[in-house]
Amino acid sequence: MKENPMTDNSATTGRSESSGRSDVSAASANEIGVIDRSAAILTALQDSPMTAAEVCRRLGYSKSTTYRLLADLRTHRFIVRDNNGLLRLGPFPGRRSIATTNSVLEHLRTLTSESVQLWVRVGEDRVCVRNVEADHELRVSRSVGTVLPLVDGGSAALALCGPGNPQEFYATKQARVKGTASASVAFTVGGAILALCVSYPLTREPDNVAGAYRAVLGQAAVELKGLLEDSEEFAVLRDIARLALGARRSE
């Protein structure tokens, strides 16, 4: 008579443990699914900026799932939405291996709505090694591989001739091209001096250039310095500069 309750309790306990394991397994599977889908979104946006609807179509997720994931990714600054409603890779708080030079430049473009270039000094020249263009029809930009003598001027040239301190801010108007302006800061990596530059037409020049660009340029320069030091990407940037100079000399 006393054995039956014990048997019943044992059976009940067994069913409870089995149910608990199933619940844990289901929760783990759901978490892995969220990570996989979030990674797919970040990979897609690394290829090109997109609207939320375009992300849905490209990845085949439901709207509710996609919008929930996008909201979470924006909250943690993995992605940002620019003035045109396009989603781009964000600055990623702290040091994250997924961050790239382009993602930092793209975030700076989002903040300024203008074209952004990264220049490196090589002797008495500067070479554009990264460029992201503004979404405006009227914009100022330079293609990767452009080589310009430092004596030609411009805010990036001034920054590259300075001490390489991101706190030093430089701005010029019509220094090289009529109707254009730019603002720059410089930083050093492995003995090389690089300049981060925002360029724009004078028709869109802020009333307070330093107020608009000094802080965001300085912050982005510090992030780039940390990202590029002892990295393979810095070696790639130096190769771009070397090849661009070699191509110009062979012309």
UniProtKB/TrEMBL annotation:
GO terms for molecular function: DNA binding; DNA-binding transcription factor activity. Coiled coil: none annotated. InterPro entries: ArsR-like_HTH, GAF-like_dom_sf, HTH_MetabolicPath_Reg, Tscrpt_reg_IclR_N, WH-like_DNA-bd_sf, WH_DNA-bd_sf. Signal peptide: none annotated. Keywords: Transcription, Transcription regulation. Residues 32-91 form the HTH iclR-type domain. The keyword Transcription applies. It comes from the Bacteria. The keyword Transcription applies. Residues 1-25 are annotated as: Disordered. Transmembrane segments: none annotated. GO terms for biological process: negative regulation of DNA-templated transcription. This is Helix-turn-helix domain-containing protein. The lineage of its organism: Bacteria, Bacillati, Actinomycetota, Actinomycetes, Micrococcales.
